[in-house]
Design brief:
A seven-stranded mixed sheet has the order 1-6-7-2-3-4-5. The chain is mainly beta. The chain is built from two helices and seven strands.
């Protein structure tokens, strides 16, 4: 497992966290890039491996019961914020390019255009296990709830199976 003082390797920590490239962690000022204020990531651009613009981060969705980042909500398309389609991207599908201050999603632009998405007024039920499994499969990443963060879950949040709540819509501001 990488430690806060190790160099970047581009691999995810064994806990299923995100990948980080493009910065020497030993010389980083402040808490990042391993620990960052989520608010500072909102609005960050997302590109693919070819450098094509895929949109920007609109929200970071936390799985409160397992103490993990579940998804980022990516906006793509539209004009001046109008008509943009939203996508739930599994956190582990993204790589933080700390040097360029952006994220990389390793999918062609056409694949994102055809991905399951939603609009700002009709969010999916992100706790629906069928939906969540399909999203993780689409982006070819292991579901985050399948990774154990520690041998002692009592100190790092609760491991759980993602419950099915089909038909329940989630408002991004509800808690």
């Amino acid at each position: 497992m990488e430690t806060p003082t190790s160099g970047t390797s581009g691999t995810a920590p064994s806990s299923g966290g995100g990948h980080i490239v493009g910065a020497d962690r030993r010389t980083s000022d402040g808490p990042g890039p391993e620990v960052m204020n989520a608010k500072t990531l909102i609005g960050d651009s997302v590109v693919n491996a070819s450098g094509e613009d895929l949109g920007k981060i609109e929200a970071i969705m936390l799985d409160v019961t397992s103490a993990r980042i579940a998804y980022v909500v990516l906006s793509f398309g539209g004009f001046l914020g109008m008509g943009a389609k939203l996508f739930a991207i599994p956190w582990s599908a993204l790589t933080l390019d700390a040097g360029e201050k952006r994220f990389v999603l390793n999918v062609p632009k056409e694949r994102l255009e055809n991905a399951p998405g939603f609009d700002k007024d009709h969010w999916p039920s992100m706790t629906d296990s069928t939906w969540a499994t399909q999203i993780h499969a689409y982006y070819k990443v292991k579901p985050y709830w399948g990774d154990k963060p520690s041998d002692d879950p009592s100190t790092y949040g609760r491991d759980r199976d993602l419950p099915t709540t089909a038909g329940v819509t989630m408002n991004p501001k509800s808690y």
